[in-house]
Each structure stands twice: as C-alpha cells, then as structure tokens.
Amino acid sequence: MAHPFLVKDIAFQAGLSTATVDRVLNGRPGVRQQTQLRVNAAIAELEKQQTGATSGGRILAIDIVMETPQRFSDAVRAAFESEMATFLPGVFRCRFHFAEVMKPAELAQLLDRIRLRGTDGIVLKAPDVAEVAAAVARADVAGIPVVTLVTDLPNSLRIAYAGADNRAAGETAAYLIGEFLGGDGGKVLVTLSSGRFRGEEEREIGFRRIIRSRYPDIGITEISEGHGSDRATGTLAAAALATDSAINAVYSIGGGNRAVLAAFDAAHRPVRVFVAHDLDADNRALLAAGRIGFVLHHDLRTDARSAFRAIMSRAQAPGLAVPASLSSIEIVTPYNMPACG
C-alpha cells in the first residue's frame, strides 16, 4: 500500500496501535476487515489534509469526541473538514470519535486514552456528568485544552464553549410556536435525546419560560431518553400521543424527527407547527417537503472555527484566557434554506 505517511501518523489518525497498522500495511494475516478499512480511511484522511499543508506550517492534531446520532455527527465532520484548510500555514489534523450512545464511564475512558496517547486539543460533545468533568480535569492538568461543542460543561475545566446560546434558542422556539398557535391553545410535545446534556436542558428551560410567561394556554408534554434514535424516539412519541389527545405541536430538541412525524401519522393526528434544530440531511428533506415548519440553525463551520481558534490561542499563549464566542441562531423555513456546505 503506497503512501508517504509514517506508521505512527496513520496509527494516530486511525486510533490503532502502530503494531496493528504495520500488520495491515504489510499484508500480514490475522487482520479483521474492519481494521483494514480503518487504516484505509486514515490514509485517505491524511491525504486530504496534506493538500492544504505547507512545509513551514505547524500541525495541531486534535480529537473530536461526540455522543450524538450519526445524522448530526456527519454534519459536524463535514464542518470540521471544511474549516481545516482555512487555518494555513498552520494545519489541523482531526481524528473523530463518534458514538450514538456512550456510558459516562466509556466516555471518560476514551478521553483518558486520548490524553495518554497525546493530542494538541479535544473538542467534546458530551453529557454534563461528574465522570466526564473529571476526565476533562485530567486533560487540563496534562496541558491538553478541551473545547465543548454545542452543549457545554460549564463547571468543568474546559477552556471554551463553541456553539449557540441554547437558552435563547429555546425561547425562540417558544415564540414561534406560541405565535403560530395563537389563542387556540393545545399542547407541545417537547422531545429531548437525554436529560444529561446541558445544551438540551438549557433549550428546554428557555422554552418553558416563554411559554409560561407569554402563552399560558399552551401546555407541554416532554419525552426524553430516546437518544435521538428513530426507533426509541418514535416509541416514546407514540406513547405520548396515545395518552394525550391535546398534543398538536412539536418542539424537537433531541432529533428523531422522521419517527415523531410517523407517530403522528399512525395516530391520524395533525401537527399544526413543528420546530426542529440543525440542518442535517433529515431536516433538510423534511423542511423541503413541508413536514416541519422551522429549523433553528447555527452554522457548524462557525463552531468549528471557534474551536480551532480556541485551541490555537491556547497553544500560542498558554496563560491567557480564551474569549467566548457564540454562533448566531437563524430561523430557517422552506424558502430560505442555505445551500449545503
């Protein structure tokens, strides 16, 4: 397998040991197909990153760790890959660690493995729990900056948060739904992927505050712990609809929107207004088809840029505080949907 990269660089990118990569590259027996694919993908990623590299540029290798549904991790990967080339002559090399569901202990172990292997920074989307905060503290002690992405760990030793103002996003959703329903009332199905994520909790707090103060005739039913998966979220939505005939609107904080709509269809129930988050592939299709009315969108490339800048700032001046930077929230309809990328 011809390539210009060191075995240790391929191993870092693939998340494998150098011995395993050496076995793959030399065609030795006993290598699983999945391992072969990981090595091939790592080499392809390094080739892509090399396109923007210059001989005098510094390479900062960072790890992006996320517990999130694949439809969102795909969007995040695309955003970070698009932004990497904008930081010349320095170059960021990103290694991605994505899982739809992870136990806190598994997340902490992954962060510890990254710390021990070595990295110039970690970008993290994770639940706000003690095990994760402790792992962030261990990284900080080791001199590794951690930037939280789209959901914060405010009581941890992370150096910065990259994302939108989640409480303001929830307030915006409440305004849209409240004004749309007007004085007719009804009840909003609020869907969370999990109550462990601070960002989702902040959205819900903002939403409830505006509904309670401005639209008291509108009720709220919450479902949670579907982890953004279609099957689990759809089951929770169907159960909520079966027990509450007043539900006529949706504020989707946690995703699984196709399944939520399918539950309404199966129950022969209309959705008067549906507000979702993030312009992933599913939401783009649902918005274009008129199945959802509004998407609260913030540019993930802006978030990636903020994360890169925070890590670069810490690398250049370890003692200085990193300034906060929030991405703006855009209300997207079927008529102003931005182009992909």
From TrEMBL:
Domain of life: Bacteria
SUPFAM superfamilies referenced in this protein's UniProt entry, alphabetically: lambda repressor-like DNA-binding domains, Periplasmic binding protein-like I
Entry's Gene Ontology molecular function annotations: DNA-binding transcription factor activity; transcription cis-regulatory region binding
HTH lacI-type domain mapped to chain residues: 8-46
Membrane-traversing stretches: none
PROSITE patterns linked to this entry: HTH_LACI_2 (PS50932)
InterPro entries: HTH_LacI, Lambda_DNA-bd_dom_sf, Peripla_BP_I, SBP_2_dom
PANTHER family the record matches: LACI-RELATED TRANSCRIPTIONAL REPRESSOR, TRANSCRIPTIONAL REGULATORY PROTEIN
Name of the protein: LacI family transcriptional regulator
Gene source species: Rhizobium esperanzae
Lineage: Bacteria, Pseudomonadati, Pseudomonadota, Alphaproteobacteria, Hyphomicrobiales
